[in-house]
Amino acid sequence: MTIEKYFIPDFMDLQRESFQRFLEKGLIEELNKRNPITNSEKDLEILFYPEYYKLCPPRWNSLDAIMFSKTYSCGLYVPTQITNRKTKQIIFKWVKLGDIPLMSKRGHFIVNGAARVIINQIVRGPGLYFSEIQYNVDSLKKKPFFRRYAAEFISMRGTWLRLSIDKEKMLWAELKKTPKIPLIWFLLAMGLNEKILFQSLTQPKRLLANYLDYLSIENFFVNPKSQNDPLSKRVFLRELLLKTKLKSYTKKTLLETLNFKPSVLVSDIYADMEDSNETKMGSQDNSDLEKEKMEEYANSSSQALELIYSKITNTKKMTQLNKKVFVKQGQKWIFKKFMNSRTYDLGLHGRLSLNKKLSLSLPLSQRTLTMYDVLLATEHLLRVEQGLLGTDDIDNLKNRRVRTSSDLLQMQIGIGLLRLEKTIRSKFSIKQVPKLHSFFSTKPLNGALKEFFGTNPLSQFMDMINPLAEITHKRRLTTLGPGGVSRDTATMDIRGIHPTHYGRICPVETPEGKNAGLVNALTTFARVNPEGLIETPYYKVYKGQVQKQAGFFYLSAENEEKSVIAAGDLNLSKTDFLPKGLLPVRKFDEFTKVPRKEVHFMAVSTIQMISVATSLVPFLEHDDANRALMGANMQRQAVPLIRSEQAIVGTGVEPRIASDSGHVIVAKSGGLVGYVSGQKIKIYTFLSKY
Q1: Where on the phi/psi map is residue 544: left (φ > 0), alpha (ψ -120 to 50), or beta?
Q2: Is 440 in contact with 464 (CB distance < 8 Å)?
Q3: Which helix (H) or strand (E) holds 613?
Q4: What pTM value is reported for the model?
Q5: Which of 1, 163, 327, 424 is the most exposed place for a label (fewest CB within 10 A)?
Q6: Which domains are seen in the chain, by residue range?
Q7: Cβ neighbours for 685, distance < 8 A, ≥ 6 positions apart
Q8: What is the pLDDT of residue 145?
């Protein structure tokens, strides 16, 4: 078989490629978000040309930065144009926005003379997720479980929106620190009308469940004195209202009533309510009516906006003057929460995920929430409740994204540029137009970056005990930190090992104690693609033959879902055919045995599923998992010798760790060693460019 150690990718590529992506795309993207900056009269405009930005050479190199306790960084210069439409002047100038810390060849930053590493954070990817919660209502009943369904919109920046179905089968829109709103109000407020709603949804009557849904009254009379649960009170109230409308007060069932009309208009509900309140009834019945709080009916966007804003502000009395103000304020509130690109951002991955899940074809530039997203999410939620569609597994790696150093830096640059924009706008208000250079200051951007490197828990001092400690630190994945989970509230589901972790996240290497399962390590062959998904390589198998000449096929957790994957330690024939008979494979998250013709892919190596530190443990398969975990962690604590020695029992990964960490002198090209001394090594090569 081929020796896989020669195919192991560079261990530092994760950090270096991420920073390269930030310089090529991330920086330009953030500057474009703030383009152009105008004053309130629109007669002054500042425009950046981010595609042509320049980085000046750093003042100190990486060694000098350590010696003089400085930051290894370079100035960011952007061509800027100011247009004054009053005086018809256009001024063009290069402007320095701030200093951007540079990543060294070894994949870390030098800030104030100290080596710092930005840890990769693994979080729930932006998009739409359907979940199911089971409640144990009463253990004595035959059906103890009650299922409740919800759909959550998760954004990169902005408010999380949750569409939920409660115990009484009512549909609600929920936001943090806001009272829950009937979903029909929310859909109308987003710009839809009743006609579109009732034509688009398969069960439109479900939206009316928040009002008195007396189109589906059961064929019996309920006495509220003996029934305490809210559902029976609702049924009683519905019957009561209908009987009031039909002027029938006898204890007959509704179907026995002669003048019974099954179709009652929803908008007649208030007339019913008034009639029922005027009716003289017992004190018990009145108290039940008071307890039951009815939602108002809205059939237009303006009505819905007015009701939403009155509910948010907890206003009970509505006047004609109030109504107009409330409609405007409601519009502002909805726009600010979900439609303003500055306060709400799904991100590219979020929009891709929504388009895929809801079968939409909205442009990828549409990063805010639209009415179609919410409408189709409602339809999907109703189908999930019926059992026609499945719920999402939050712990599956296809629903998780890795925020690499580039993403975290980009977010911080965005904060710095937002502060810069505010200072520019404040200077616009001055009557005399100042000169171009006085608009700009390096403080906002430098301050934001200094804040990030100094206080953010994802920016840490590099672990420099030995080369392995460095590599492990740079390949670490954490679910903690801003936007992640808290170690105190994290459940066993989050900490556990998921089938999709195979070849992506190491099942062995994790700390002991509070952080167990929350801080993980990337496996030896894994890589993170530009979308933030972890991919692992496989060989393609065609009719039982392993196609090694075709190279590696990198698969994400989603691509791998329906594949049949064989283990990497199977003995192949001279012509690369898999052995005959039943082979152990992974299929749909389960281990089974299939003939070789059914195999789609084969693992690249036996060390594919473990991390760099774990791959240094010899005969790992014979160890207890807990002891292997301790061994992998303790190797990082070993103090190196002045004269390094070769391992007595090695696994073959040791030289790669030493060379990739940057602690070993590496020649630019291979060749013949002609001379060695304590000061220099001469290598003779056939390539002239070196």
Answers
A1: left
A2: no
A3: none
A4: 0.82
A5: 1
A6: 4-119+412-460 (3.90.1100.10), 127-207+299-386 (3.90.1110.10), 230-291 (no CATH), 485-616 (2.30.150.10)
A7: 669, 670, 671, 672
A8: 66
Q: Per-residue pLDDT averaged across 276-295, rounded?
A: 43
Q: What angle do CA 530, 486, 610 make, to 5 degrees?
A: 50
SS3 (DSSP) at 539: strand
* Averaged pLDDT, 205-230: 48
Token pair listed for 427: 């200077």
The contacts of residue 175 (CB under 8 Å, 6+ apart) are 159, 160, 161, 162, 181, 337
Contact 253, 219 (CB under 8 A): yes
Bigger pLDDT: 520 vs 644:
520
Which residues is 149 bridged to in the sheet?
A: 132
**Under 8 Å between Cβ of 147 and 156:** no
What region, left, alpha or beta, does residue 469 occupy, with left being phi > 0 and alpha being psi -120 to 50 degrees? alpha
For residue 6, the surrounding DSSP H or E stretch is none
| pLDDT score for 545 | 92
- Is the separation of the CB atoms in 346 and 372 below 8 Å? no
72: Cα separation from own chain's centroid: 31
State both tokens at 590.
Answer: 């389960």
* Contact (Cβ atoms closer than 8 angstroms) between residue 615 and residue 503: no
Whether the CB-CB separation of 539 and 552 falls below 8 Å is answered with yes
Do the beta carbons of residue 72 and residue 62 sit within 8 Å? Answer: yes
